[in-house]
Amino acid sequence: MATALRVLILEDNPSDAELMLHALRRAGYDPTSECVETEEDYRAQLQKAPEIILADFSMPHFDALRALEIMRECGLAIPFIVVSGSIGEERAVQIMKHGATDYVIKDRMGRLGQAVTQTLETRALLRETLHAERRLLAQHAVTRALAESPSLATACSKILRAICDSLSWDFGALWQFDATRNVLHCVDCWSNPLAPATEFEEFNRHSTFATDNGFLGRIWGSRQPVWVADFAKDLTFPRAPFAAAAGLHAAFGFPIVLGTETLGIIEFMHREIKQPDDEKLKMMMAIGSQLAQYIERKRTEASLRQSEARIQELTANIQQVLWMVDIKEAKVVYISSGYEQMWGRTCQSLLDNPSTYVQGVHPQDLEMWWQADAQMYRTGHIDSEYRILRPDGSMRWVWARGYPVKENDQIVRIVGVVEDITEKRRVAAQRDALLARLQLHIERMPLAYLLFDADFRIIDWNLTAERIFGHSKEEMLGQGPPFEQIVPKSNWPQAEIIRNRMRSGDMNAHVLIENLTKDGRTIHCQWFNTPLMEGGNCTGFLCLAQDVTERKSLEEQLRQSQKMDAVGQLAGGVAHDFNNLLTIINGYSEMIHAQVLENSPVREFVREISHAGERATGLTRQLLAFSRKAVLEPKVLNLNIIVADTERMLGRLIGEDINVAAILDPALGRVKADQGQIEQVIINLAVNARDAMPRGGKLTIETSNTELDDSYTQMYTDLRSGPYVLLAVADTGTGMDATTKARIFEPFFTTKERGRGTGLGLATVFGIVKQSEGHLAVYTELGCGTTFKIYLPRIPDMPGSGVVPRPRTVVRGTQTILLTEDEPALRALARRVLGMHGYKILEASNGEKALAVATEHKGTIHLLVTDVVMPGISGRQLAEQLVAVRPEMKVLYVSGYTDDAVVRHGVLQADTAFLQKPFTPASLAQKVWDVLEQ
User: Fold this and answer.
1) Residue 434, SS3?
2) CA distances from 801 to 181, 639, 640, 671 (A)
3) C-alpha to C-alpha distance for 744 and 886, rounded to whole angstroms
4) Distances in Å between the alpha carbon of 156 and those of 141, 146, 175, 200?
5) At what angle do helices 921-933 and 824-836 cross, to 10 degrees?
6) What is the dihedral of CA 916, 919, 921, 922, to 10 degrees?
7) Strand 786-793's sheet: what is its strand order?
8) Rounded distance, CA 933 to CA 919, Å?
9) Residue 821 falls in which region: left (phi positive, over 0), alpha (psi -120 to 50) or beta
10) What is the rounded distance in angstroms from the CA atom of residue 144 to the CA atom of residue 147?
11) How far is 112 from 82, CA to CA, in rounded Å?
12) How far, in whole angstroms, is CA 191 from its chain's centroid?
């Protein structure tokens, strides 16, 4: 869209004038022009205030130089461009010195539009600069007058004069509102000394006007500036006759406004008629705001003086120090009495010499304090913590805060408070240390730590959570339900139930649930969940998780072990009682068999009874071995010798269609175990392998040294790391599935058809290995055979090969034996057997009677044969009491199994003589002979 432009053209050639207008239109202007050739017409057109003048340098009756002189005489500054056919450098310089803005050669008329644009832009910039300078001068003058005067009344005359001088106006007055009378009264006024308006000035000084009347009333009511070009023509101006007498015509005024309050009015007048000027009005409004702030500041100062006494009374009773600094004078104008207690210096010393404050600052904090102080003087603000040193040498931490007090947008004072924060910093340091330790504990705790916001979004995730679940903190932050990264889809309903319980504030919404890891594994986690409540509302959730996958496995092992122990306890108890009966049955069967003639039909019956007793004896031994209640006679053994001896009988035991191979480590270490039980382990495993290879196969028995480290032993509660001897028995049979493998060590569990096996073979192996402090592992797969690996603790090399000595020949004796047994039939059997071998027998049915018998007997008692488990006094207690008075007496303990101290965990002490039930008459006689001959 074209820009309108009022143009005055000095040109005697109409064609050239039209070319000028054409150039302006091409440049985007819409010119309105007047073309003149004479001085008279030129003067007339100047009164119409054209925006730009385009002039030929020389015309018949007029030229550009004369036109510039006339414009200056009229006090005008209109942009002036010379457009000439030809102009030399000397003339160009001349017209520019006379005030021309630019010049254009007519044969380069295309440049005219650019020259006009540049000229108008320059003029606008100059005008704005002039206005800005006038505003700045007026504001500086007002600021200086206010700063140099103690009150508005004393500053008023200076302010009015400064504004009139800067704006070239002739009269000014300031009117202030009197709230008690609801009128405006004149504070002061000023008139130009070159054209004084003395009478009008006096009239105003003694006048008051209602706020709803005349020129002043219009300003008051609108709270906006009002401009009157000629108040002589304005009927609402009651002072018009007096102003006209003083030669005044134009007037403008503006309110002094502070917030919603109008404090007063300033007005100015001029002897000439003046049209409204927006720039002057804007400037005056700014000055009005400045005066309003000044008035408010004075009010504040008055209020401050009135409250100083109350402040002093208040500050005398608080722990903080209040202070005030005068920026202009760089002086402390107020300090509360707390300064003396905090700094250990007097308040007066600081008021007299502010530099004493610096003397109290800790030397290490002095540089920081200087920087904070410099910033305070620039901005009026301070917020700094530093140390101070009191004269007594003690150190305190203080917190200084300061805020600016401004007048007319200038900082005049800074007020603030200093607080002793020594104790707060000590407590904060303890708190920070506690929080740091807490954060360290959170990061290092063995539990996963998950913190959720109120929407169940993860906002914290510790290193243990990363280790358990495999996801980093960055991957999980912001994640929300259903948490498919760590919760299997099948558990989402259960997880939602727990979340709802937590949302309701349930503090016991704990759960054991399956979780997922980043690598796809399923683990079991115990979750301890706590809703975070604030004001009855749930603001978040704290969840701790423990990976209990291994614990669940160990618990399953423990449950299995407890089940085995319970069955074993029962089996051991039954075997113990049954052993007494078997001893009687087997003993009398052997005695009868020895006395029945060879051709007697009774002899065959007795033989069958003996065979049944022997089978029952084997069964009870299996029960005791399984229940780990058997009494062991451990010796240092070389498993290679036992395997070699056992291998020779396995061929007959398992059949010729099974190939037996022994792979023995020649450097095999020694173990300490019961030789008979180790042989039973090998035989039971071989029989089990035979049943798994009905069509034949290969049985491999292997020995070697090995080390079990923590990575293996930590998976088992009853296993310690260290050196072991490995006995491995492997077959090429049918193998087992997982269900069968889980039950193979249960007593009476068997996969054989009814009548084939008792189901105690592998249970017995398990009991023997555990009682020998060993470990048993099974590796099997359907169709791929089975391997049993037995780990026995390896001991340092010791002399001896572990060969059991042959029994010696039994001879008759003559010694005295005290026989103590609470089972009458068994006691009678033992009495007969020992009596038949020549011994003198003293007998008792319990410990108390045995003591009495020993006391009555005056002769020597060479041997005490006693059951271990008896009501009242046990066999061990009986032996201890008798040996104390008969130190030459020897002791033979008899039992099937016992928890008594005679047998520690089923293992005999080295110097203890023991006979295992059930026993035969021959074994009893042999054992008694051996003990007496030791």
Assistant:
1) helix
2) 131, 10, 10, 11
3) 51
4) 12, 8, 10, 18
5) 60
6) -70
7) 658-663, 697-708, 722-731, 786-793, 775-780
8) 20
9) beta
10) 5
11) 10
12) 75
Give the three-state DSSP class for 667: coil
**Residue type, position 204, single letter:** N
Structure tokens belonging to residue 73: 């005489």
**Helix extents (H) in 742-787:** 761-771
Within its chain, how far is the Cα of 423 from the centroid?
27
d(CA 486, CA 543): 14
3-state secondary structure 343-394: HCCCHHHHHHCCCHHHHCECHHHHHHHHHHHHHHHHHCCEEEEEEEECCCCC
Residue that is written with structure tokens 């009150």 in the block: 151
How far apart are alpha carbons 802 and 614 in whole angstroms? 26
* pLDDT value of position 399: 92
Write the secondary structure of 94-150 as one string of H (helix), E (strand) and C (coil).
HHHHCCCCEEEEHHHHHHHHHHHHHHHHHHHHHHHHHHHHHHHHHHHHHHHHHHHCC
Instruction: Kindly tell me if the per-residue pLDDT of 237 is higher than 50.
Output: yes
CA triplet 117, 123, 129: central angle to 5 degrees?
A: 135
CA-atom Rg of the chain in angstroms: 61
Between CA 834 and CA 924 the distance in angstroms is 8
C-beta neighbour count of 541 within 10 angstroms: 21
Residue 726: closest CA among 641, 801, 669, 645: 669
Q: Residue 830's closest CA among 932, 934, 917?
A: 917
Number of Cβ within 10 Å of residue 309's Cβ equals: 9
Tokens (6 digits) for 343: 């700094």
CA torsion, points 500, 505, 510, 511, in degrees to nearest 10?
A: 0
- Give 83's strand partners: 104
700: β partners: 661, 730
Detail the DSSP E strand segments found in 423-578: 448-453, 458-461, 511-516, 522-534, 537-547
Q: What DSSP element (H or E) covers 539? A: strand 537-547
Cα separations (Å) of 921 from 593, 596, 815, 828, 840? 12, 16, 18, 12, 16
> Do the beta carbons of residue 608 and residue 594 sit within 8 Å?
no
- For residue 651, CA distances in Å to 114, 682, 692, 790 come to 125, 13, 16, 22
pLDDT per position as a tens digit, 250-309? 888 989 888 888 888 999 999 888 888 777 777 777 888 888 888 888 777 777 777 666
Amino acid at 730: A
**Residues 6+ away with beta carbon under 8 Å from 366:** 358
Tell me: pLDDT of 788 over 50: yes
pTM over the 0.70 mark? no
Place of tokens 């520019």: 96
Helices and strands counted in the chain (H then E): 29, 35
Q: Report the run of H or E that residue 601 belongs to, with start and end.
A: helix 601-627
What is the rounded distance in angstroms from the CA atom of residue 775 to the CA atom of residue 763? 14
Before 482, cis peptide (omega within 30)? yes
What the block records as the tokens of 275 is 């049209």
Tell me whether the omega of the peptide bond preceding residue 918 falls within 30 degrees of 0, making it cis: yes
Q: What pLDDT is recorded for position 623?
A: 59
pLDDT of residue 120: 84
Tell me what pLDDT residue 159 has: 84
Yes or no: say if 887 and 860 are a contact pair by the CB < 8 Å rule: no
Tell me if 802 sits within 8 A of 635, measured CB to CB.
Answer: yes
Q: Is 458 exposed, middle or buried (0-12, 13-18, 19+ CB in 10 A)?
A: buried
At 247 the three-state DSSP class reads coil
Q: Say which amino acid occupies 814.
A: T
Q: How far apart are CA 853 and CA 718, in angstroms?
A: 47
Cα separation, 652 vs 464, in Å, equals 59
The CA distance from 669 to 456, in Å, is 60
pLDDT value of position 905: 37
